[in-house]
Amino acid sequence: MEKKIIIIGAGLCGTLLAIRLGQRGYPVQLYEKRGDLRKTGVEAGRSINLALSDRGLMALEQAGLADAVREYCIPMYGRKIHPIGKAPFLSPYSGRKTDYINSVSRSGLNIALLEAADEMDHVNITFNHKCQHVDLADSRAHLVNMETGTAFTDEGSIVIGTDGAGSAVRRSLMGQTTRLRFHYEQSFLEHGYKELHIPPGENGSYQIEKNALHIWPRDAFMIIALPNLDGSFTVTMFHPYNGKEGLDALTTKEKVKQFFEKHFADLIPYMPTYLDDYFNNPTGTLGTIRCAPWQAYGRTLVMGDSAHAIVPFYGQGMNASFEDVRVFDDILDQNKGDWNTIFQKFQKERIPNANAIADLALDNFYEMQDKVNDTIFIKKRNLERQLEQTFPDYYSKYSLVTFQPKLSYAAAMKKGRWQDELLMDICKKEENPNLESVMEQIRNGN
Asked: What is the pLDDT of residue 48?
């Protein structure tokens, strides 16, 4: 009988991976350094809602879980923009009414996956166990029981690290930098985030539009809000650290109150606890991680945020991690038993696409922050929607990434950026572009 597969990290990626491997009949040991979310709950201020889109759903469907997860989802059909001094307006994600993304609770989704994993005979989950390091060539994980302090070693056929941006498994790869020619890059935005809250209205009603991702863009900073099933909204303030109105300067309730009255006066009535939320919840960082290789000796592998953490502004972090699981599963299907080949093919396929979505997420940060109010940008978005409504074969860059899950991130980025440049140029020069002419240019260019 084959030794068990050891997975380090029972977050979204690791738990879905454990489920899929368990469905294939592999014995899986899943370790998680935190306690069981079903018993401990979520740390305050760390529950940023996620946008589940077609790529993530495609992976969940492969595991037979998509329908169950949809029960936790709220469809969002576009961005509801809230400019200062102007009426809010909806910017649909697509010209097709069937295209939408889903707001889903990170903890709720993780709990649903843990429940599914717990029902599987081949999967064992052990909480409160932290990985210290991995012997890469021998598939041995060195762990410590966080409750007793007892250290021990577990050995499997392979070890897969899905233990997030601070991955101990990735650090083990980094420990052999010269031998593996390991490259590691970590960069941070000069912005952090604070989680705030809009409570439900009367009888669990939604105080603002339910089926939209709300954005209050303010050039150098912004606030977004995503709906929850109970009528509340998870509100996230993305804000620079520096400057006279930066996070480092907003140190008293009076300063924060004055800041919100100046920039977000329309939002204050919906957030009675915003001052307490601001000071009680931690400030989170926003970073990107790139590394290579993702595997060593055909025995140890990283995937998900352990391999490619990104900023949240394309709503693709979770979707990219779920796509890792789907692609890994497809490659495993073609090369059963040959872990070295599986690992090599997986990283060759996924590293360029992980880098592409990292770049796109950074692009979208600047777009959401200061372009959604720009006249030419709005004109371009309107043109894109008209094209999508008129021509079934047209997809904007956002739609290519979000609603075309069979197209790789790298291909979607290349095609989407080219289209963006073309349409922005047309919108600068022409007041009412002819749709047939525009579409002909796009088809000829592709």
From this structure: 62
